[in-house]
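User: Here's a chain of 113 residues. Predict its fold as tokens.
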Amino acid sequence: MYARKLSRSTDHRMAMLKNLVTFLFENGKIKTTLPKAKEVSVLAEKYISKAKVNSLHNRRQVLAFLKKWKVAKKLFDEIAPKFAERHGGYTRIIKLGPRRGDAAEIALIELVA
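Assistant: Prediction complete.
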């Protein structure tokens, strides 16, 4: 599977993506660069799909990734039931234009209502 490296080592990249996904589930939307948003979207959709099946195994897998048990509880109790009838496409990426300092493409990623 191809994944964006985002100019980071594996450990740093995975820690950053775990934090971004956790903040997305916690707040409903986050603003970041476009390549990061695309990677966060892939991971967020994967874990929402896991949370739709409420089993102990899936809870442990989600908790191993998210690290905040309150966010994992919110994912299983609030977010996943909203998407029970939906088969994918849980996130939306909106391009916001270039960042002023370095002209990096900025995007808003949010959970679809």
